[in-house]
Amino acid sequence: MTRSLRVVVCVLAWLCLPRPAMAADPQCSFVPSLTPGFGSVTSFVAQTTAQATSSSTVASCQGALLNVLVILGDAPYLRATVGGSTNNYRLKNAAGDSIAYTISAAPNGQYPITPGTAFNYYQQTLLNLLGLLGGTSGNLPMHFATTASGPLSAGTYTDSFTINWSWHICNVGAVVCLGYANGSGVANVTLTLEVTNACQVTTAPNIDFGSAPVASSFDPVSNAIGVLCTKGLVTYSVGLGSGAHAAGSGRRQMANGGARLQYDLFKATDNTVWGASGGTVWTNTVAASGVSAQTFAYEARVYTDQTTPAVGDYADGGGGLVGVD
Fold first, then answer.
1. Using CA atoms, how far apart are residues 174 and 125, in angstroms rounded to an integer?
2. pTM
3. Nearest C-alpha neighbor of 282 from the set 252, 314, 322, 251
4. Cβ(294)–Cβ(202) under 8 Å?
5. Is 43 helix (H, G, I), strand (E, B) or coil?
6. 126: DSSP letter
7. Which residues are CB-contacts of 146 (< 8 A; sequence separation ≥ 6)?
8. Cα–Cα distance for residue pair 311/305, rounded to 1 Å
9. N or C: which end of the chain has fewer CB within 10 A?
């Protein structure tokens, strides 16, 4: 009987290594329901400053996903396709105002995710940027940022969309893939931003009575304060402080050392003193545009029933706008 000797030579040593058992469970999973939020900002902040937020985890993976050096076998992937937006990828409130937003896989808009286009998280540079490359597990984020917008009314701005996930990830093996985990699914996302009412003073000119020999000779000064408020805001009040030297006199006072010269600001609409509380505040009832300031006209007068104080320069401060509610 003739016997033959079979010899097998391993040209690639790593092909001859013992094969580990294949993982029983998929390598990736996704969060099925997400409610990331931008928090609450005033209308002026929302209009001028991009707001950023992130859902800390949209998917979680472990094992071979984090080692992208598979050189034999099918190309692995972990794809996210954003779709099904309620408002065409704009946050919208009940009044119909909207704010556009962007989506990315990394902070600061890096690795943008285009709606309707599959985005592959399985990228070496991206995993490295996220600090996941070479690890054994990791959470994959999705970041959202609003863009500057036109005048906005207050309210809760929302949009809902889906993330369609699919993955084909090496189960076992870093260089030669010995098996793949496959999976897919749909996540539902509701994104929110709360926009609040706000007002800001646009014009508040100083008052100059000029000079006069006696208190009763000062001419009144007509002027106006401009206030810009959130689009659609109707009822709000504007109050003025009593100045730096009122000191319980019931009247605003200008000072020159210990001497005082009494004056006040009177609303142009009803000739009453414009103050800081109660019936002395100015209540607005006209809807703000969010673009053009509303003006509140007044007349400043030196009281004529006072004794003329010593000659000198008199001034007051700290009597500016104290509240817009």
1. 17
2. 0.82
3. 322
4. no
5. helix
6. H
7. 38, 46, 50, 51, 52, 91, 99, 100, 101, 193
8. 17
9. N
